[in-house]
Amino acid sequence: MKLRAGLLSVATVVITVIIITLTAIVGRLTAALVPAVTQMGVQLITEVLAFGCWWGFNRWYPKAKVSWWHAGVRHQWVLVVPVVIVLLGDATLHPEFQITVSHILMAILLGFSVGLFEEYVFRGVLVSAMRQRYQIGPVLTAVVSGLMFSLVHLINASGGSLTMTLVQMLEAVGLGFFFAAVYLVTNSLWLPIIGHGLIDGFDILAFGTLDNTAGMNVWTSLLYAVVFSFAAYWLLKTKRFAVQISANGSSQIDFARQPHEVRPVIQRQSVSAIKTLVAIAIPVLELGLGAVVAEVTTDKWIRIILVDLIFLIGLCTAIYVYHDVLSDHWHRFKHHLGSGLLVAICGVIAAYMLLSAVRQGLTLVGLASSGSSTIMSIQTAGLALVASLTTLMAPFAEEIVFRHALFYQWRGRGAFTWLMLIVSSIAFGLVHWNNFHGEIVQMIPYMFVGALFGLIYYFSRNIWQVILTHFLFDIIQVIAVIAMFILAIVQAG
To answer: CAAX prenyl protease 2/Lysostaphin resistance protein A-like domain location, by residue (predicted)?
Structure first.
């Protein structure tokens, strides 16, 4: 993504936060001067003024040409129907509807004022500017729109729960991505505004507020994020719809079904016995040498540094042996970074949901054992930070070994292909032997995650897709370690 497009994305969030802060002050001053103005009235004033400020600001920068409505596409309103999923989901979160004329009126006004302001900024201005000024691809444009829309919700943490703010941000990523896709394929900003307004208006009626402490649940938010992300990706990649927000100032209206690109049939690939044996030897030697280091070395720093070096040698060996696969797949993957990032994010969400579900299932059948601590939970913050280097190397080496050498290169062999998926997934779980001190039950959830990663590789047909997914999955742990390290420094100071 071009540097200026990235700066515009960040500037959009910063400017929005500043404008909301200033207009909220004006709203509270109005309520102080006019006691009849309620809390909802203050928020309505804030949203309307914020929209006016951004509309005026856009005339100076970035001067995006916002398309409010395009009459050339018939039945485009159907694309708003999926928001019913949010209404049904929120209806399960113990709503307390207030059905009065005044409340319904305020819900409509406030819901659509929020939708008008936020969709104008993050879809109308940001999406249009990225396409018109910087010629960014539609998928990456929509992903950035969803991420920036999510980030601006961090402002809600100042007056509420940080946890629920993060849950709200998760939901905002999926919905923001979807609304951006709708705008891109219809050239009609009113559609995202209507969809957004329906959701917020419903929540006001159901919970009496738009505060993230009400009407929020981590599981429904995960569901919204996954469902709407896939819906958005389908809208942008299917040949049924043409992207209307053009990068060159011209576009054609065409909602007729176009011929789909025919993907090549998966062919049987020759397997190198020597390469495969080397790949299998890498994790075996890493586990064996790691155990030897633990036996002969009592100093924790030396032990962790030696383990990091062992993993580094294993990584370099795997890359050297399969550099041809990595190079060939990268040439294809780099042209689809936006969609690849989206698939990776959805894969991470699915992996953590699967991890949680399997662990709960093991608990229900009485197999789960306590004490699933890893090296990060028993070492000091500094040791854990150094130890986490293996976590950064793991996605590359493990995907080469377990997903390519033990599974993907065996494709096109019928039942044997899927047998290798099972074998590689079990081996992937067992490679965490030292992390869980030999407790096999604790490794079972990672066997399921390994199968998920294998399927991502199989259907994407690109090793970099699963490497990126695995890397994002592991980087969450590294971020947690960094936070522990910073906290330790602060406490020591």
So the answer is: 103-201, 383-476
